[in-house]
Amino acid sequence: MYSQSGKQGCFVYVSTQSYFEISNSDFTDGTASGSGGAIFSISSTINIKNCQFMNIYANSEGAILAYSDSILNIQGSNVWNTSSDISGGIVGASQSSILIQSSNFDMFSHSGMYGEKLHSLSIYDSRFDDGLGVYGGSIYCSMCSQVTIKNSEFSNCNATIGGAVYLITQSDLLI
After folding, report:
1. Which residues constitute the domain of residue 80?
2. What are the b/e assignments for 40-54, b being 16+ CB within 10 Å?
3. pTM of the entire predicted model
4. Where is the Right handed beta helix domain (predicted)?
5. Does an H or E element contain 84, and which?
6. Looking at the predicted structure, is the pLDDT value of residue 92 above 70?
7. Number of folded domains in the chain?
8. Under DSSP, is residue 138 helix (H, G, I), strand (E, B) or coil?
9. Dihedral over Cα of 135, 140, 143, 148: its sign
C-alpha cells in the first residue's frame, strides 16, 4: 500500500471489537493530520506479521495507534523513518497491550514507543536504532502495569532524559 493521506489511520482504521491481521505487506508514504499514520485501532486486536512500514508521519502516534483495550502484536516486521510531532513515532498506545517480537525499528522520533496506562508492554528479540525523544529515545511508558524487555538492542537512541528507555510509575518491570 502506497501514498495514502488522511486524518487517522491512512491505510487501515479498525474500530470496536474488531480483529485485523495482515502479513507480508508494505506500508509506504503515509501521512495523517491526526493519529496513526498507517494503522488506527480502538478496542480491537491487530496482528502484524512480516510487514514493512516506511516514511510514515502523523501529528501524534506516528505509524500505529492502539487505543482503549486494543491488543497489538508486531512480529518479524521492519519500521523505518516514522515520525510524529507529539508522541510515539512508531507506536502510540493507551490502556492497551503490546507485544513486539523479532522486529527492527530505525530512524524514528518522539519516543518511538509511547505508552500510557498500558496493561502490558512486552518486547523480545528486537532492535531500536536512531531514535529521538525528550523522554526515552526509544520507549516512554507511564503508569504501565507490566513492562518486559528481553534480548533486545538499543543503538544511537537519544533523549533529554532516559536515552533509550524512560519508565515512570511501573508496577512490574523486567529487563
Report:
1. 2-174
2. bbbbbbbebbebebb
3. 0.93
4. 8-130
5. strand 78-84
6. yes
7. 1
8. coil
9. negative
